[in-house]
Amino acid sequence: MAAKIRKGDTVIVIAGKDKGRKGEVLKSFPEENRVLVSGVNIKARHTKPSQADPQGGIKRNEAPIHVSNVAHVDPTSGKPTRVGFKITGQGDDRKKVRVAKRSGAEIDG
Fold first, then answer.
1. What is residue 5's predicted lDDT score, i.e. its pLDDT?
2. Residue 37 predicted with pLDDT over 60
3. Are 83 and 101 a contacting pair, CB within 8 Å?
4. What is the pLDDT of residue 3?
5. 106: which DSSP letter?
6. Angle at CA 81, nearest 5°, toward 77 and 85?
7. What pLDDT shows up at residue 2?
8. Which pTM was predicted?
9. Would you list the DSSP string of 36-70?
10. Distant-in-sequence, close-in-space partners of 37: CB < 8 Å, separation ≥ 6
């Protein structure tokens, strides 16, 4: 089955403390229904100094966010949109592509 949100897609957060933020999907966890979005859901972790990291201190990293809390960004308007699928081409050239429901524009490049 083709995933609606994949690595490299631009998404907007539609719920939670980071609502309204846009970012690129860095990694997808389909079995957990979560995605890692750049600049969203930043968590602080206090780390002790070690040989690998002699400085230690507070490290800030993105944490995965549930896929239901993000929406695709429409390629034409920049607003949130749902994702649909469309078959293009004829015969052996048929391809299943993702399309934005809001504008009908293709998401796959």
1. 93
2. yes
3. yes
4. 84
5. B
6. 115
7. 59
8. 0.84
9. EETTSSEEEEEE---SS-SS-EEEEEE--EEGGGE
10. 11, 13, 21, 23, 24, 25, 26, 62, 65, 70
Residue 106's DSSP bridge partners are: 99
Spatial distance between the Cα atoms of 80 and 49, rounded to a whole number of angstroms: 42
Phi first, then psi, for residue 107 (nearest 5°) are -95, -40
What pLDDT score does 1 carry? 42
Distances from the Cα of 99 to the Cα of 28, 33, 70, angstroms: 19, 21, 16
**Rounded distance between C-alpha atoms, residue 83 and residue 3, angstroms:** 10
Q: What is the pLDDT of residues 46-98, one digit of tens each?
A: 999 999 999 999 999 999 999 999 999 999 999 999 999 999 888 888 999 99
Length of the chain in terms of residues written = 109
Q: Which residues pair with 88 in a beta bridge?
A: 95
